[in-house]
Write a sequence for this structure.
């Protein structure tokens, strides 16, 4: 079955570390997205990519970086510059935003 | 930018009762509207979407939503709540901006179903 796989499900980061969250899809979708979810704040867009080798900053891109070298993969790096990284991170893909998103099951990142 | 307002961060209903989750949007152009459901520690799943084909949209799990342009609303309903409906529900709006399709999510409504 087609879908989106996020890994790991849980991730712990020490202060000053960079960590990378994986997102892989086999839906043949062109567009991919990263969202951050905090309690009571809904979903906030970090980065999005409409096509391979191209990506755009979302509303809260500071302290994050992405790459899109393959259509299937859109990894997110949480850098040490992100001062409050503890959150639930969701990756999504779509044919077009008008069709709706398919979401992965999320990665919960905790700073220790 | 477009916005979405979900009235009530928590809603409680009895099992078998009507479910009504409210969503209002701001949009100067016809929007695309969506409802998603999220179970604990999982991603979001698309329940239904409005794309201007019909004002009453039927989705999965017995949910439906009605687009009312005059009220700028897209409320989600289900005639009879089931225990398995307990989850968080998000309304979202999609619109074109700067050549890109943007999506804004509401802050979510947690639905509790009381046996």
């Amino acid at each position: 079955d087609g879908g989106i796989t996020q890994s790991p499900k849980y991730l712990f980061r020490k202060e000053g570390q960079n960590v990378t969250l994986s997102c892989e899809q086999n839906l043949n979708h062109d567009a991919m997205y990263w969202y951050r979810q905090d309690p009571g704040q809904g979903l906030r867009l970090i980065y999005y990519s409409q096509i391979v080798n191209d990506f755009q900053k979302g509303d809260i891109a500071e302290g994050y970086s992405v790459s899109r070298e393959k259509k299937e993969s859109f990894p997110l790096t949480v850098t040490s510059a992100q001062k409050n990284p503890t959150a639930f991170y969701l990756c999504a893909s779509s044919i077009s935003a008008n069709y709706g998103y398919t979401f992965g099951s999320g990665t919960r990142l905790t700073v220790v | 930018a477009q916005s979405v307002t979900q009235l009530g961060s928590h809603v409680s209903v009895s099992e078998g009762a009507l479910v009504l989750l409210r969503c209002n949007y701001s949009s100067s152009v016809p929007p695309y509207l969506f409802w998603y459901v999220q179970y604990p520690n999982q991603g979001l799943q698309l329940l239904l979407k409005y794309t201007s084909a019909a004002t009453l949209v039927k989705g999965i799990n017995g949910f439906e939503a009605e687009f009312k342009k005059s009220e700028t609303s897209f409320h989600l309903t289900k005639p009879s709540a089931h225990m398995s409906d307990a989850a968080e529900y998000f309304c979202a709006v999609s619109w074109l901006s700067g050549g890109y399709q943007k999506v804004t999510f509401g802050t979510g409504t947690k639905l509790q179903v009381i046996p």
